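Before relying on records like the one below, remember that each one covers exactly one chain. Contacts with other chains, cofactors or solvent are not represented anywhere in the record.
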Amino acid sequence: MNFDGVLGIVLNEKKEILLVKRRDVPLWTLPGGNIKEKEYPIQAIKRELTEETNFKINVSYLAGFGKRKDIEHKKRKGDYLCAFFTCQKISGNFFPNEEITAIKFFKKNMLPRAMLQWHKKIIKNFNSSQKKKININMNFREELISLIFHPLILLRFLIWRLLN
């Protein structure tokens, strides 16, 4: 399977999950991003976590995968395929940067409201003790409906879409 992107499920010692708050659209998300040409998914998740959080990580295992509509037009046709990796922080301290304004570890049952629904589903279906692969696909319509209830987020999302 050729993946286009990666997401990291970074757990702390309390089994809380790391989320990052994006600068472009102020939503909490799992850290991650696009896989560069000739880059392996594990290399990509390590690079993305370092870029977004300044953390060095260990990648434990492939937790699952999913697909979503290619809204950024990264591909010529087809869906955007994403791998989900379970990771642990080794070292590093976060500093706000051009992509991320904040980070926080959340309990699985206490996730923030301003969050991508797709990422919520990934977290809700993730079970660190089972190591069973999850397959969660994004529902673009569901994401848009959830954004409507956050007017500031919706406005920033629309501006971002117009500029890109």
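The radius of gyration is 15 Å.
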